[in-house]
Design brief:
173 residues; alpha+beta; Arc Repressor Mutant, subunit A; 3-stranded antiparallel sheet; 8 helices; 6 strands
Length: 173
C-alpha cells in the first residue's frame, strides 16, 4: 500500500469514526509503524492548512476536527443547546479527577467535603469523564478518569499539559 492510499485511508477512518482512533490501531490497519502514521498525519495537516479541518493528537490517538475559529458558525448552524458553561462545582470535580485519576466518587467527596454524585454523573453525560474500571477493594467502587473529549475541550495534547500545582514551601519553626 502506497503513502497516498494510507493517507486517504487514515482520513476516511478518522472521518467515519468521529471519535479518537489510537495511532497503534491505525498503524496495524495499514501495516506500518506509528512513526509513519505520525508523519503522514503531519503531512495531512499541512494539506489542510487552508481548510477548516485539522487532525488533533489526543494522547496516543488522533481525531479529525474543525479548526477552533469555526466554532461560532458551527454552533449557530447546529443550534447547540447543550454547551452551557461548566459550573464551579463541575470545574472543581474535573480538576480533582484530572490531577488524581483514576479516582472514586468517595475520594472526590472527601476532597470537596460535599456529595458530588450529580456533578460526576453530569460530567460523564457530557463525555468529559468516563469510568476507568472498578477498584479491587470492598464494594468495588467505580474509578473515574478524564476522556479525549476533556483534552479536546481544554486544548491539551495529553494530561501532562495540565498546569503544575504550586508546591507550598515548607514551614520553618
Amino acid at each position: 500500500m502506497g503513502v497516498r492510499e494510507i493517507k486517504n485511508g487514515i482520513q476516511a477512518v478518522l472521518f467515519a469514526s468521529g471519535d479518537p482512533v489510537e495511532a497503534s490501531r491505525l498503524a496495524k490497519l495499514f501495516s506500518v509503524n506509528t512513526s509513519v502514521i505520525d508523519s503522514i498525519i503531519h503531512t495531512i495537516n499541512d494539506d489542510y492548512e487552508p481548510l477548516p479541518f485539522q487532525i488533533l493528537k489526543l494522547g496516543d490517538s488522533y481525531q479529525m476536527a474543525t479548526r477552533p475559529e469555526y466554532a461560532a458558525v458551527i454552533r449557530e448552524a447546529l443550534e447547540a443547546k447543550n454547551n452551557a458553561p461548566l459550573s464551579q462545582a463541575a470545574m472543581e470535580v474535573l480538576a480533582i479527577i484530572a490531577y488524581n485519576q483514576p479516582v472514586t466518587k468517595a475520594f472526590i467527596e472527601q476532597v470537596r467535603g460535599i456529595d458530588s454524585s450529580s456533578v460526576v454523573s453530569s460530567l460523564v453525560t457530557k463525555g468529559l469523564v468516563a469510568e476507568a474500571g472498578r477498584l479491587e477493594i470492598p464494594g468495588r467502587p467505580i474509578a473515574y478518569q478524564t476522556t479525549a473529549a476533556f483534552l479536546r475541550c481544554f486544548g491539551m495534547k495529553d494530561i501532562e499539559a495540565l498546569p503544575k500545582i504550586p508546591q507550598r514551601e515548607s514551614q520553618q519553626a
